[in-house]
């Protein structure tokens, strides 16, 4: 299963490098609502990193992560989704965000580099993240007929590539977007 997810990520990255952007007349990819919500959440990782840098807070925040996982589990139940599945998807969201934060911290430690100005108050950013968490769970519910089929990996790849292009993501954020989608598709081929 992990090998397939890894290959899906590689395909997504390769697709972004070689595929021309979809024309404005082309229909949106099937999972674009989901990948757009995931990308929106991931884009906030920069603000989270800057705030944590300003306050001296650690990147890892197990208490906050638990609140997020508990909240999305309840959202999953409310939408008749498997809470374990949704928690897995959100573990990937959290880890992808921390990937971006760690890379930014490393960059800001380099000679001549500085972090952008930020407030140590994460309240407004967390409120935006919470809204996107709801949107992601809603999109998972809307995609329930795709995520368990063999259609999911290619649909997710196309949607991820289009979302990354539309967002103008740099290589760090593209890689994190692929990481954030690692558990979306639940289809299994029976071997890894």
TrEMBL record:
One family name in Pfam for this protein: CM_2
Source taxon at top rank: Bacteria
Chorismate mutase domain segment(s): 1-105
Pathway(s) this gene product operates in, as recorded in its UniProt entry: Metabolic intermediate biosynthesis; prephenate biosynthesis; prephenate from chorismate: step 1/1
Residues of the signal peptide: 1-24
A GO term, aspect molecular function: chorismate mutase activity
Top-level EC class: isomerase
A GO biological process held by the record: chorismate metabolic process
Reaction equation(s) it catalyzes: chorismate = prephenate
EC numbers, comma separated: 5.4.99.5
Keywords: Isomerase, Signal
Function: Catalyzes the Claisen rearrangement of chorismate to prephenate.
Name of the protein in its database record: Chorismate mutase
Originating organism: Gordonia alkanivorans CGMCC 6845
Upper lineage: Bacteria, Bacillati, Actinomycetota, Actinomycetes, Mycobacteriales
């Amino acid at each position: 299963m992990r090998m397939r997810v890894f290959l899906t990520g590689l395909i997504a990255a390769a697709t972004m490098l070689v595929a021309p952007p979809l024309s404005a007349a082309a229909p949106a990819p099937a999972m674009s609502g989901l990948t757009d919500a995931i990308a929106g959440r991931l884009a906030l990782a920069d603000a989270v990193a800057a705030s944590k840098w300003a306050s001296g807070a650690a990147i890892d925040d197990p208490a906050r992560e638990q609140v997020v996982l508990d909240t999305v589990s309840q959202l999953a139940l409310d939408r008749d989704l498997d809470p374990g599945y949704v928690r897995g998807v959100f573990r990937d969201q959290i880890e992808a965000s921390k990937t971006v934060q760690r890379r930014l911290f490393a960059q800001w430690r380099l000679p001549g580099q500085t972090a952008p100005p930020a407030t140590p108050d994460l309240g407004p950013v967390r409120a935006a993240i919470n809204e996107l968490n709801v949107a992601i769970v809603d999109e998972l519910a809307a995609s329930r007929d795709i995520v368990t089929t063999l259609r999911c990996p290619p649909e997710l790849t196309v949607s991820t590539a289009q979302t990354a292009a539309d967002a103008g993501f740099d290589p760090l954020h593209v890689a994190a977007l692929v990481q954030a989608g690692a558990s979306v598709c639940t289809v299994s081929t029976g071997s890894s």
